[in-house]
# Entry
Amino acid sequence: MKKREKVVSGHLKATQIDPRHFAAGQIKFYCILIPLAMFMVLPVIMTVNRAFMPLGELFAFPPHIFAKEPTLNNFKSLFAVSSTTGVPMSRYLLNSVLVTLLTVLLNLVITILGAYAFSKKRFRGKGLLFETNQLALMFVPTAVSISRYLVIVKLGLTDNWLVHVLPLAAMPVGLFLVKQFMDQIPNELIEAAVIDGANEWTVIMRIVVPVVKPALATSVVLTFQQVWMAVEASNNYITDDSMRTLAYFLSSLSTNNTVAAAGMAAAASVILFLPNLIIFICMQSQVTNTMSHSGIK
# Structure
């Protein structure tokens, strides 16, 4: 293993890319990457700073990147409005946290079991079912909103907690990614484990899951982002405000008065954005590893 690392390190040094030390040959890469990174992070900086801008700066032209007179009034107004609606903001936040955690966990279980079945099992209709999953990647949520509404109404799931979870419990893109990673696991490795007395659950948890961990992390990130920002269930299937999520409440603030609610909308966008940023930072290495392996394959 050490010999392999030396070979790789030597190859990188030969191309003037030393991962452990700075070299003059790296300057040309930094000249490209640093401006590109600053350009990519600019929207994040503007989103955060707009939450602390007073109303006059929010509508200034040309727009400001940094707040000249930062204030917390936008957040104070946001919490003040939530206290007058009859349902506290903490209730919406609790609903979003519970729905997101439950959906992500259920999606993770379905993705692991479904990908394992498609990758390592043989059964009738396997190809057709996987092609159906591939076909589902072509449809945006808006294209199936009417049929989804009819199914949910027929099942009697309106004003039910399950209406937040079930429509997002399975993601075709996550199943596809994890299945492609599982295809790289040799069948002989699983057969050897079975011969040694391991059951299906042991094979999945001890052999399969550790290998496909990067793809699972990517699936978790994608699922979290979609569930955390989802407003469809609260908007179309829920009439009880105490069962609605934080994303719905924050997205409805600027509906009636766009100018007056601009500050609250800016604060709300930061509250919705930060959890996505945190979970991506925590799993960034796994997501990058997923893209790297997919490109190599």
